[in-house]
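Intended use. Records such as the Methyltransferase type 11 domain-containing protein entry shown here are meant for training and evaluating sequence-to-structure methods. They are not intended to support clinical decisions.
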Amino acid sequence: MGRVTSSFSKGTSTADPVLIDPNTPAESKAKAPPLEVQTTSTLVVAGLASSASVLPGTLPLPFPVPVPGIRLTASTPNGPTYSGTSSSYIDLVEPIDLTDTEPHLMNNLKHLFPNLPKVSLPGTKDYVPMQDLFTSPAVSFAYERGWRQGFMAAGFPGVEKEYEMARDFFASSPSQPPAVVVDMSCGSGLFTRRFALENNGYERLLACDYSDSMLVETRSRYVQAEFEARKKNKDTPTPPILDLIRLDVANLPFRTSSIDCLNAAAAMHCWPRLDSGLSEIHRSLKPGGLFFASTFLSRYFSKVGAVNSKDIKKQTFQMFESAESVKEIICKAGFLEEDVEVTLLEPACIIIKAKKAAEGGDDEPLQIDKNETQTDVVTATVVEENELAETTQSPSDDWEVEI
């Protein structure tokens, strides 16, 4: 995939050990046939994000930069076919239409160009704010130009510190180093770049998002960061295999028990089908697999005018009222109570560390009775702000803006 070391190289056909058809029934995802990812001879043109430069090491341009690539297809026997390019990502949300009856020449010409970005606009019938806000190229452009840094007002410790928290947690994985790591809802690739380029020893990294524009932003920023890292140090260790995947977190294209560690930074509040997403994450993790996440309490969103509605299609973000309620949600997805730690960084940042139970355990996942009183609610680990003074942003947090 361009300069990114990928599983999918030109002229190959790969039976992927992790990726499966996302439309496989959940009960069959453990033994589902692998996606066969093939490269074709079809050249395509893919547009990079506005942060990209024409070549690594050159100045960014304020408009999308077209670059060539090779078209990829992914399919299973008798299943739908998905597509992607070697210079963008594989789309495992929307299959391609194989019933196209256009003349051969016109069809080939059409495939020279990338699919149009899947952008949903406010006011349209199918617009879901928490899902579709980040499909906008304008949001992708702004994400590392002040948007993400603004999270510190809610108590977020800064990208560098948060990455270190996730990295250190993943160091307790039963697999050392973890073989397969997922950066879920990767956004512009703030954490993807760090997981890939800081010599963590991972074999494979999957950067995943629902937003086309965010995935393209991730790629262009990663290519630039990898170039800069090698320019500074020619002996920089080879980064892990990195594949970019468009997916729906509520319907993951991962084989059951195939993922060692999964990171979801500032993401859960943007998942419309939250319960399904968390259940899918639990299913995908290996026994002993680790889940690290950060999110907001609703008290922060009330200050920024976010809409709270019973209609998920109108609600701006998921509204988490307390650390305790967040822990309930995580446990409902299948994680055991004793394996979940939820920490509050005042005033409104939630940090989640969860471990999937090892196989053969006698404990059952916590069952939450909706009729229970407040006194029966699961307690969470709540850390006061003065106990986390060390989580203040370090000077190195400017790194994500520079690259």
